Structure to design on (171 residues):
């Protein structure tokens, strides 16, 4: 058996694998952190491709560019850049996509936005954010989806709600 050399990926030619703007952002995120480059190339590429900017270079972008990208692609911002967003922008993204907010940014949401997201998506709230919900919202989510409550948050339910969830599934 002969050894076959393995080819290494040449990141300088990422345009072969992705769009040109994404390729520049990948290179920027991986190799270049000079302010001049960030101000020019990353800003232009972020405007053209906000998804790639948030995934590959969010920590290199100026705040106003992150904000613009987040408003263009809220779910991507919540998954990849929630730690870089100001609280009001996290809440705005959560309003646009409560599922991603509950999965990736529940710790960053205001109590009001967390409650609104849980009300909109009780199953997701029970699975990913049950420990962060108020007792009232946890109870409401369990009432809305007893199976999810039993599967993901049974240890957090009151004895009465636990019994009600079990009864709902039996009947």
């Amino acid at each position: 058996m002969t050894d076959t050399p393995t080819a290494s990926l040449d990141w300088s030619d990422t345009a072969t694998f992705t769009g040109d703007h994404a390729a520049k952002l990948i290179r920027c995120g991986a190799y270049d952190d000079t302010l001049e480059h960030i101000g020019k190339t990353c800003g232009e590429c972020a405007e053209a491709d906000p998804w790639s900017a948030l995934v590959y270079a969010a920590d290199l972008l100026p705040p106003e560019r992150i904000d613009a990208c987040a408003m263009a692609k809220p779910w991507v911002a919540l998954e990849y850049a929630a730690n870089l967003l100001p609280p009001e922008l996290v809440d705005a993204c959560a309003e646009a996509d409560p599922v991603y907010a509950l999965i990736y940014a529940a710790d960053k949401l205001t109590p009001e936005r967390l409650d609104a997201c849980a009300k909109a998506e009780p199953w997701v709230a029970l699975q990913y954010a049950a420990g962060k919900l108020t007792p009232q919202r946890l109870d409401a989510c369990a009432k809305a989806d007893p199976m999810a409550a039993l599967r993901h948050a049974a240890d957090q339910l009151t004895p009465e709600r636990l019994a009600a969830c079990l009864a709902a599934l039996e009947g």
About this structure: The chain is about 65% helix and 0% strand.
